[in-house]
Amino acid sequence: MSSKETQLKIFLIANLLLILAINFIQMEALSLLSLILVYYIFIFAFINQKIGLLLIILFRPSLDIFANESVISFTETPINVTSAIGFLSILLALFIIFKNKAEKSPLSKTWLLFLGISLVSLFISFDKIISLKEIVRLLSIFLIYLSSFYLIKKKKDFVLLVKTIIFSAIIPGLLSAYQYFTHTGLSVPMENIYNRIYGTFAHPNLFAYYLVIPITLAILIFLIGKKEKIINISILGLSVLFIILLGLTFTRGAWLAFVLITLIIGAIQYRALLISVVIIFLMSYVLIPPIHSRINDLHEAKKGNSIEWRQNLWRDALGYIKDEPILGYGVGTANKLILEKRGERMGSSDPHNDYLKITLESGLLGLFSYLILATVTMLHLIKNYFKTKQVKMKTVNLVVFALFSSLIIMSFADNIIRNTALQWSLWSLIGGLMGVTYFKNTENKVEKNIDN
């Protein structure tokens, strides 16, 4: 049987299964269409894994809007559209890994250490269902990294991945623009902030930090791209739009993350970029009152503002750690723990500090394993920067290093690990870059052995 005949049979069986399944699914029309889109992406992904992975990365940020739409419910744990795409991504990744099991990827050992300690904390968790869901979510991030490592082996594939991540912000961006013009964004009157846009995400902060990735990658395309001028100019135009949207989220942490990225890139290699961003940032501070006000809040001691609220939250959470310092309360349980300890009247139960979150959930062992993962990743990227002789690849490693480092730093003040769409794009990017570097080095070794 030819491959085309096999693919046709798979497609026909997939259609039949979908028709049967729709009869048992109770969802609104738009949510159902999103579920059908996810379904066909994965049918296609098993036929062409590389394109399938790119489609997953492209549409994943747009699907967060359906996070509360239940597909199937059992006990108290509903399976929603984002859960479905996570489950199917794991299946696809396992299929890809099985096909490429002979190759060993960088970072796998450090990832497995982090996942292993998280898994141990599952067994002592006070809410095992929440912990199990979090383990699956973390596993999906690792497997997306591995999938990208195995599938992105050439520079042209990596460039395509970069452009896919940039374009993935278009739908969330369009929706956020609609929110801005219709005044349907999030308002926080107590902080004098109105109409914060959030796109397809659950909160402006999540959207803002996601935008940092396509903006950074658009800068990368601008720095290294010469061919396809029309596409590159379009991407540069998108970056301007995304920067404006980033400003309208009023998320100071994401602003700072972007500034840190340009500081790193500018200080090491591109002074003009550094100067340009500093000028734009200063002009925005002087000319745009809401931005001026948000930045001033950082050093003005206003009672009850978000800075003081965070400090009180962190102080309370550090007290909880003392009771379970080694393995924590169970992976994924930080929100529920803080809510039970502090109550709803104290506001959001998000830790707003990833290191605090990890320590609450997996103890000091979990924190140590995560710090190892972050450190080893940064060392790989900076080592590749100095080791690579080709100018464009040096720039790529530098930009990805700056992006990853800035998010690691901002994790001290916000919830970045829980942003699944961001983590998938970030780790697919790292995996793809590791794949290009690893397989290129392997080819060079083979060529040298042949010559000898």
Written overview of the protein:
The chain is mostly helical. The protein has 2 domains: about 1-100, no CATH class; about 105-445, no CATH class. It contains 18 helices and 4 strands. The strands form 2 sheets. The chain has a two-stranded antiparallel sheet with strand order 1-2. A two-stranded antiparallel sheet has the order 3-4. Strand 3 (about 185-190) and strand 4 form a beta hairpin. Helix 9 runs parallel beside helix 11 (about 250-270), helix 16 (about 355-385) runs antiparallel to helix 17 and helix 17 runs antiparallel to helix 18 (about 420-450). Mean pLDDT is about 85; it is low at about 445-450.
What is the straight-line distance between the termini? 43 Å
Protein structure class: mainly alpha
Q: Percent of residues in beta strands?
A: under 5%
Shape: globular
State the helicity in percent bands: over 70%
Helical segment tally?
18
Ranges where pLDDT stays below 50 over 5 or more residues in a row are 445-452
Q: Which value, in Å, is the CA radius of gyration?
A: 22 Å
Instruction: Kindly report the average pLDDT value.
Output: 83
Give a quick account of the main beta sheet: strands, pairing sense, barrel closure.
2 strands, antiparallel
In the sheet with the most strands, the strands line up as 1-2
Number of strands: 4
The SSE order reads: HHHEEHHHHHEEHHHHHHHHHH
How many domains? Answer: 2
